[in-house]
Design brief:
Length: about 100
């Protein structure tokens, strides 16, 4: 379980670095931007919970926490893509969606 716990910590650290880089580039500003960062922050918290569950050999709890993390990441990424599209940084996706 130790390897999984360590890998979970690394994922959480990478998310934290990504969030810092996004803030440096001006993301996370305004109401929508803060919502994006909140979602990514929720993902980080859930990753931390999964890490703790792995440390306690609670794989079921870790899977649940990781599921919450993935959902929060999905919502945060979708909001971020919409923001980037509105700012003209990217074009619409194949179905007109970001």
């Amino acid at each position: 379980m130790g390897d999984l716990q360590q890998e979970q910590q690394q994922l959480k650290d990478q998310l934290k670095k990504l969030m810092e880089e996004l803030r440096k580039r001006g993301f996370g500003q305004g109401q929508q931007g803060q919502g994006e960062m909140d979602q990514l922050g929720h993902a980080g918290e859930a990753m931390g919970n999964a890490e703790g569950e792995l440390g306690q050999d609670n794989t079921d709890g870790a899977v649940e926490s990781q599921g919450r993390a993935l959902e929060a990441l999905r919502r945060g990424a979708q909001s971020l893509a919409q923001s980037m599209q509105q700012q003209g940084m990217i074009g619409p996706g194949p179905n007109g969606q970001p």
